[in-house]
Fold these 2 entries.
Entry 1:
Amino acid sequence: MSPDASGLALDYLYDANPPAGTVTEIAPGVRWLAMPLPTSLNHINLWLLDDGDGVAIIDTGIFWDASKEVWQRVFAEHLGGKKITRLIITHAHPDHIGLAGWLTETLGIEMWISTTEWEMGYRISGDEGGQIIRDSGLALYRRGGLGAEAEQLAGTRITTRIPMARVPEHYHRLQDGMELKIGARNWRVIVGRGHAPEHCCLYQPELDIFIAGDQVLPKITPNVSLWPNRSEQDPLGNFLASLDKIGRAVPDSVLVLPSHNLPFHRLHARLRQLRDHHADRLDEVVRACDTPRPAIELVPVLFHRKLDQRQMGFAMGEALAHLQHAVTQGRLKREERADGAWLFGRA
């Protein structure tokens, strides 16, 4: 057991992640592939599921040569002659979908993904000049109150973005509640929101396994950001509602397979930890809004460390998500400054 500050404890299946590029069988017909990432979060967990005479892939890793080299080694050494049957994507963030175009083209397979995630991935992967990335960053920073710095930081989003291969034009649609037959077993699709608009998790009752993607992580909290130029107006509310939904649909006994860190048991304890974490953060930002303030002034309330330019985007999105959720709860009110910045004060 591994306790944390909440006093709750998770039960980890392993003590440490396996070396990057290795494949580990963790349940009958379920293999764990540790894929390296060139970031402070230095790995992503991918999953290989027996699919009849072949193997289905869950998520891809990012679009860079090291990921391709790992995949080529897996194809040559770890599948026992089995072919890849299809690619299943949990959501459209670059570490999950970045190699989708390369894998589907190289292997001649098809992709399964929710429609909202496909639309987002397809648009961003085709944005060669980075205009979508820049515009979304500019809207974020202006609403957050950065003023003249907004243009500069929006420009850095282009230079620091993680590249993606062009997302395939055709796909099979994943929907909430559908039963996806993979090999001899049915996996139930459970859609979570907040971290991504239509994030697909997979639950298999007989194996008692829950592939959680980024929706439930054991040691870090998934980023939940409000993007002012997107339709999701209360992402934190959606995220918290998704935690409740998962808790009702998935038993505590499951082995949780997250996209980062280690597989673990005691799902419901982790759901409580995540709810408690956000409740504490909400209380902090509400207390700090004794006078109307923009999100940039609330970032230090939520993040007690120095942030680089890339991290500032995530932090600003998180701050706006918490502030807007407090508005939805009736605890804060929001007004707009002459320069377009949102100001948040006590309701």
Note: The CA atoms of residues 191 and 210 lie 12 Å apart.
Entry 2:
Amino acid sequence: MKLVNGDRKWIALVCILICIGIISVYLLYEAVIPRMTGIPGKGQPTNEMPDTIFRCFIIEYNQSFAKDALVFHLTDADLEDHPEYRRGMEEANTSTMEWREGKRYISEVQDCSECLWSFDLCLQEYSRSDCLSHLKLYEYQGRYFEIRCIPSQVRS
């Protein structure tokens, strides 16, 4: 079967579009993925400050929530590298905040890490889909806490 001149142009156009698509995906992958994974040497130098600061809220839950949640039992050693979280959880002992529907706000922590501590801890024991779809509670000194983080400031 002979290709006519018009068919050759369509085949050439399709090949060019496929090449452009492959190059675009590669550039997107190199630009976005290293920042998401936090791989040193990929995307940003390790000695620079992170792009985003997170506001992390420590919320205490009553024990009834523990049966349906992924529960991580923390010790003082687990919190050694994260003293701000430890201090926040210890504030629950003296908190006067009101309980609402079995939970109450305890404190706020600034977290500059690209891979948030609480999410990394979950990934050590469970799959990513489990970590994203279940309530994660951290038991410390007989109390149950959730850590919720939101980006609060993006550095330029």
Note: The chain has two domains: 1-45, 52-154.
